[in-house]
Design brief:
The chain is α+β, with helices and mostly antiparallel strands and 696 residues long. It is built from 16 helices and 32 strands. The strands form 10 sheets. Strands 3-4-5-7-6 form a 5-stranded mixed beta barrel. Strands 10-9-8-11-12 form a 5-stranded antiparallel beta sheet, covered by helices on one side. A 5-stranded mixed beta sheet has the order 13-20-19-16-15, covered by helices on one side. Strand 29 (664-667) and strand 30 (672-675) form a beta hairpin. Helix 5 (241-248) crosses helix 7 (308-316) and helix 10 crosses helix 11 (444-467). The chain is globular.
Amino acid sequence: MKKPPRPARRAEGLPSRAEIKRFIDAAPGRVGKREISQHFKLGPEHRVALRGILKSLAHEGNVAPAGHRRFTAPGRLPEAMVVQITGTDPDGEAVARPVKWEGDGPPPMILMAPEPRGRPALAPGEKVVARLKPIGGGKYEGRTVKRLTETPGRVIGVFRPSPHGDRVVPTDRRAKAEWAVPFGESGGAEAGEIVLAAPLPGGGFGLKPVRVIERLGALGDARSVSLIVIHTHDIPTEFSAEALAEAAKAKGVGVRGRTDLRAVPLVTIDGEDARDFDDAVFAVPEGDGFRLMVAIADVAHYVRPGSALDRTARTRGNSCYFPDRVVPMLPEALSNGWCSLRPNEDRGCLFVEMSIDGQGRKTTHRFGRGLMRSAARLTYEEVQAAQDRGDDLGLPIPALYAAFRVLLAARNARGTLDLDLPERKVTLDDAGRVASVAPRPRLDSHRLIEEFMVLANVCAAEELERLHQPCVYRIHPPPSEEKLENLRTFLHGFDISLPPGNRIHPRDLDHVLKKVAGTEASVLVSEVMLRSQMQAAYDLDNIGHFGLALSQYAHFTSPIRRYADLLVHRALIAGLKLGPGGLAAEDHGGMADACEHITATERRAALAERDAIDRYLAAFMTDKVGQHFAARISGVIRFGLFVTVLESGASGLVPISSLPDDFYIHDEARQTLTGRRNGLEFRLTQEVEVRLAEAS
C-alpha cells in the first residue's frame, strides 16, 4: 500500500490540518485551494504545503474528493445543485435526489417546496437547479431555482381503472401519491399494465393528471422489471441517427502501423451469458516468472473525440446490465461487432505486455497497438473444469493458472480487502418469468481474470504518469473516521477489535473477514464492512486505491462498456504516438468534468442494477406466499427483524407484532430482541424459519 501523502513542511502562517478540515466541513459546497487561501489569507509560498495537506486529508478519508482538486465534507450536499424529481410524498409534493451524488450509500431525500401558483407541478424525471437547506434527519428542503428539462417529466406506474376515475400507481417506491388519468387519456391501457405517462397541465387540489403515452407490459411479466428500472433511473436507451450511422460505417482494421499478434494464442474468458468480449489474455513461463499479455478492443479507433458516437458514449458513461437485456454504451454494430474480440476474427486492439518474477512482482511492461485474432471464446466454467481435470484445451490454460497463483500470492502479501459477497444470478424462463434466483458461483477462473486485469490497470496508470499524460485514476479513499467508528462499534458485538487510531490498512479489515469466515456471521460482517467503505470514483488527482492497496490504478480493460477506459486508451495513444484517435491537447481541460459525470453515471447504473435484482426477487416470491423458508436475521430494530432468505437472498421485514405474543426489549448494543416473559431471544445472524406473508 502506498504510504499516505506527507504534507510539506508547515510554512509560517499556514493553518493546521484541523483548521482546514473545519473550514471544509463548514463550507456549504465544494472548496479548493483558492477558497482556502482566500479564507486564511495565504500566499503563493503556501501552495505546495497546502496541496500536501489536502491530499493527506483525502487519503485518510477526512475530506471527500469532489471533482478536480475540489473537496467537501463526506456526504455533504452543496448549497445549490442539480436534482432530479423521483416521485411524490403522500401529500402529492415532489421528492428529489441529487443527479451527482458524491457520498456513500443511498443519496439523501430532498423534499421540494411547492411550485408558485400558476406554474405546473414538478413531475418525476424532471431535472431542476434547486437551492438546498438541511432540515435534519439527513433530509433537505429544496426550492426550484431553474427548470432544466425542456419536456415534461415522465411517470411510470401500474394502470388501475376505476368507476371513479382511472389511476396510475407509481412503481417507484419513494412515490406515495397516485396520478389521475382523465377520460380519453388512457391510451388503451388495460388493468395491471405497466405504463409510461406524461403529466398534463392542471392546478388546484386533488391528484395531478397524466396522459398514458406508452404501454410497457403486464405487471406480472418479469421482463417489464428492467423497463421500470430503466425509466425510473432515467437511463438513455435510444441512439441518435447520426451515432448509428457512424457505427454502421465501421469496418475492420489492417495490420499496417500495428503489431501483428495474430499468432499469439490470446483467449477471451467471460461468463456464459456475456454479451460482449473486450479483453483477451495470454501467459507463458519466462525464467522464474511469466510473460503476460492483456489485449483490449481498440474502441478508440472507432469512437473519435467529438464524434456523435463519442457524445452518446460520454452521455451514457457506461453500459447497464439487467437479467433480460443490456443498455449498451455503444451501438450493437460496435459493442457486439467490430469491438468484440470474436474467435478466429481479426480485431484491432491495444495491448500491454508484462513480465512478472516468481513472487508476482511486475518487472517490465510495454504498451502497443495491435492486430489480434482470438484463439477461443471460453467461459469461466469450462476453463475451470479443464484446469480441474488437467486438460489444457490446446491453449495456454496451465500457464494462465500458474501466473495467476503467483499474482494472487503477491496480492496477499500486499494486503488487500477481499469482500467476496455472493452475487445473485436471476434466470428467466422462455415466458419471461423468474425461474430461479441463486448465488453466482465464484471460481478461480474469475479471480484469474481479475488479477490479470488489475495488473494491466496498474500498468496503464504508471505509463500515463511516465508520459506526463492526464490520467483518469480510479480512486478509493479509506473509511472516514465516522464510518470507522461505526464499524468498530458493530464488530465489538462479535468481540472483534480493530487496531487503534483513525488510520487503518486494508489487511486489518481482511483479517476480520478471515476471522469470521465459515461462521454464520460471515455474510453479515462482509455486508457491514462493504457499507463502511467510501465509494470509489474517477478523478484526475490520485489518492490511491484503498481496497486494492495500490498507489496507482486506472481503468484500462473495458472501453466497450466504460467511458473512463476509453479516455485512458486515448491518453495512451497520444502519449505513445500510436496513431489516430488519441487525446488532443484541447480536450485536457474537459477531463475533470468528464470524471465527475462518469462517476455519477456509474453510480446510477449500480443503483439501477441493484433495484432490478430487488424487483426480480419480489416477482420471484409473489407466488410463494404462505411458504416457509430458511433465513438469517440481518437486522434487529425496535419494531421488528429484517431477515434474508438463505437460498435466494430475498430480504424482508418481520414486524414485532408477528413474533410470539410478549413485550420485547430491544438491546441496540447486543443487536437483540428479548421477550420479557418467555425469555425468547432473537439476535443478529441467527438462523430462523420464516413464512412469507406478502410480496409486492
